[in-house]
Amino acid sequence: MIKTFIVICIGAGLLACSSVTEVFLKPSILKLDGTYSSNASIDSIVKPYKDSLAKEMNVVIGTSPINFITARPKGTMNNWFADAIFVNQTYNVRLTDPVMCLFNIGGIRSSFNKGSITVGDLFKVMPFDNELVWVKLPISAIKSIETYLIKSGGEPLANANLVQGKLQLNGFNSQTKFFWVITSDYLMNGGDKMDFFQQKIEVNFTNKLLRTALLEEVKRQGLLVVDSTTRVTF
User: For labelling, which of 56, 77, 169, 203 has a CA lying 20 to 30 Å from the CA of 135?
Assistant: First the structure.
């Protein structure tokens, strides 16, 4: 690959009858032809870090019994992803109000193939440093979520179902005035056009990355749990 550098030569002349200084710019072109070899000293410095990172990424943390898939309106990866986060965030929490998980399929950037799962696989699934958040919404926001799910064709859900276009939350009753949605800070801030989060009453930040929670659940499960149920119908 040829790279071109423009070298600017500056010459200055001073007029005898004036205090004005004129500056003349004369560009010239220097072409470099790609025959330059890598710097051995730099390579020797970088290599240990590169090898260490590769070793860490190749650590096996679990096993997948199937080829997980993401799809609309349902997919095994959709369900596993949302369930893993729900369990991670609620296993030691006493739920007194309805709580659901809601994510976007576009945020799941890869899936698990049958066989061993490595740390690197988790980074492929979730390469972004998104934080998990709990968002408190009024019951009136349910209609907006229903409309969104119908329009998008379905998203990953946990502890809730969209049945014939109506959102059903576990723990919901006639006295319920608000509910919580566990999601990412990106979506809470309106990412993927999830504008219904603008109705938020309160936000609890977990200081935990979404990827970290997923990694913890892969380790905890060992052999990943498969759930192929349909959670979204119109």
Answer: 77
Overall pTM > 0.70? yes
State pLDDT tens for residues 20-36: 444 445 555 655 555 55
| The residue to which tokens 């990953």 are assigned | 156
Picking from 71, 99, 70, 98, the residue whose alpha carbon sits closest to that of residue 183 is 99
Selection from 123, 89, 122, 79 nearest residue 219 by Cα: 122
pLDDT in tens, 83-110: 999 999 999 998 899 999 999 999 999 9
The answer to whether residues 73 and 232 touch, using CB atoms and an 8 Å cutoff, is: yes
- What the block records as the tokens of 153 is 């064709």
- Confirm if 76 and 226 have CB atoms less than 8 A apart: yes
Residue 79, classified by CB atoms within 10 Å of its CB into exposed (0-12), middle (13-18) or buried (19+), is buried
